[in-house]
């Protein structure tokens, strides 16, 4: 019997981590996972598996490698028919092809780190790729509380466009594209957030003084005989002088969101500038700067970390502060961003000094000796 006949729509590529059949609510929607849908053939990168075993000398900590898997596009859950699935999209109302089913797909993709689609016989329009969930494995099993009444506010805060951009970043393997789409997501969120602030350091009085200074500068140029065309070009660019800089907005946004220290030291400030420089280089030249660190290899590792950080910053902000999701996975992702700025490590890897193979071997050696992953 097809899902269409039984009053359900298929959900493709949704990694819910249920280990037995069950159902749960996501907003107004009832999602069901039958016995035949438990598990799923998901795309995965190769990974280390940490465990233990007994041999003739007793218990030993062991590390094995699980090979990568290309995965398949398949049904992993179904959602009961609901009038909201056919209603116009709340998150992306300007897109005529988006509806409530797309909103559900968008949120499930955003949280699970995978390209998810809702609809019978639906084909993927993004790659089936390894994913990294922002929520813990228990989230959909125990408490997937998401208040759908928050969606209009999420939209007004730029959350719909940000989620859409982050999903494009997550499913693309090119670092430059990841940085570009991650930046687009974050810029939209920061712009909306900054526009709601009650305080602005660039007060009317400050703007008035800047305007007077600009007029004096213009008069000086005219007296110096600079051409009117050049003067007009320079004056047009001076309009932005009395506005908060992009780096200042980014710093304030990260600090308020608990992802950057309130009193950063020089090293933390340097790492934030890495992020900003890479965003600007992609935006203005379409290329990745390889002179940030001491070597091109280290610079590229920084770029790879920034590509993931940009996604996680947006994902943490939308999940925790717009959707009001309380989950250990979100908290850990928030702390991982903070740790990058404080220590220069990302997911335990020292970005400047360790290539992946060195980092990987350090984890193996430490686990085999100590039985934990906290070197």
How is the largest sheet built, in terms of strand order? 2-3-6-1-7
- How many beta-strand elements? 9
H/E series: EEEEEEHHEHHHHHHHHHHEEH
Query: Sheet with the most strands?
Result: 5 strands, antiparallel
Tell me the structural class: alpha+beta
Fraction of residues in H or I helices: 40-55%
Mean pLDDT level: 89
Distance between the termini: 53 Å
Number of helices: 13
What is the rounded Rg? 24 Å
Strand content: 5-15%
- Uncertain parts: 1-5
Shape by Cα distribution? globular
Give a brief description:
By secondary structure, this protein is of the alpha+beta class. Helix content is 48%, strand content 12%.
What key phrases describe this protein's structure?
disordered N terminus, alpha+beta, 375 residues, 9 strands, single chain, globular, 13 helices
